[in-house]
């Protein structure tokens, strides 16, 4: 329950930040900042929150294995779509204000995350869902599937924190009070994001509950 509570807290915080402090968000507006505000909302909720919920769905939902697999697949797909839309919003914002693309470590790692995330999902769809590989192939690939999933998710959490730091630094250089309420909100949002990611990875590393469709405490794929 803690992980779901943290997911709600982080989601509320990013909306409060974007709406109450940054003026909201819009795909088309004369206020170009509203376009950028889409970026942190969609990437955080998509790649970190929904991505984390997708990862733990195998262990947090008391459902049949095939149902959990479908939920796992769909949540990751939604996460990728939201992540792509969030990245497109950032690119469009840079185009409108004539700022170069991909000049920070946040953007470099962010592109790597969405590319690896997409490739992982596509490969896993083929091997585990349709047309589905043989039982031996699925078993042999599973540890690597899990390892890459953990790696990409950890990168996504780290990239989000880098993004908060980068944005807050830009705002403070523009005159934002370093000890003001917005600065505290962004910093706490980063802390809760790390806490959420930590709990997700803890759940992944724990034993799965016994299932009638699998051997007890089997290794669950991410």
UniProtKB/TrEMBL annotation:
The chain crosses the membrane at residues 34-58, 70-91, 103-130, 142-164, 184-204. It catalyses: Fe(3+)(out) + L-ascorbate(in) = monodehydro-L-ascorbate radical(in) + Fe(2+)(out) + H(+). Coiled coil: none annotated. One of its GO terms (molecular function) is transmembrane ascorbate ferrireductase activity. Gene3D superfamilies: 1.20.120.1770. One of its GO terms (cellular component) is membrane. PANTHER family: CYTOCHROME B561-RELATED, GENOME ASSEMBLY, CHROMOSOME: A02. This is ascorbate ferrireductase (transmembrane). It comes from Noccaea caerulescens.
């Amino acid at each position: 329950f803690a992980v779901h509570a943290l997911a709600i807290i982080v989601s509320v915080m990013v909306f409060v930040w974007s709406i109450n402090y940054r003026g909201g968000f819009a795909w088309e507006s004369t206020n170009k900042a509203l376009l950028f505000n889409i970026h942190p909302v969609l990437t955080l909720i998509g790649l970190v929150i929904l991505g984390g919920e997708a990862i733990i769905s195998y262990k947090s939902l008391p459902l049949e294995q095939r149902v959990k697999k479908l939920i796992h697949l769909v949540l990751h797909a939604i996460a990728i779509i939201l992540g792509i839309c969030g990245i497109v919003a950032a690119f469009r914002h840079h185009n409108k204000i004539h700022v170069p693309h991909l000049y920070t470590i946040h953007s470099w790692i962010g592109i790597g995350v969405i590319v690896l995330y997409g490739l992982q999902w596509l490969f896993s769809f083929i091997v585990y869902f349709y047309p589905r590989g043989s039982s031996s192939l699925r078993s042999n690939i599973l540890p690597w599937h899990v390892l890459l999933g953990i790696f990409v998710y950890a990168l996504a959490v780290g990239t989000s924190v880098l993004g908060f730091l980068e944005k807050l630094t830009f705002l403070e250089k523009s005159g934002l009070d370093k000890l003001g309420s917005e600065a505290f909100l962004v910093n706490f949002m980063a802390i809760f994001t790390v806490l959420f990611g930590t709990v997700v990875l803890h759940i992944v590393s724990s034993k799965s509950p016994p299932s009638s469709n699998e051997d007890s405490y089997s290794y669950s794929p991410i």
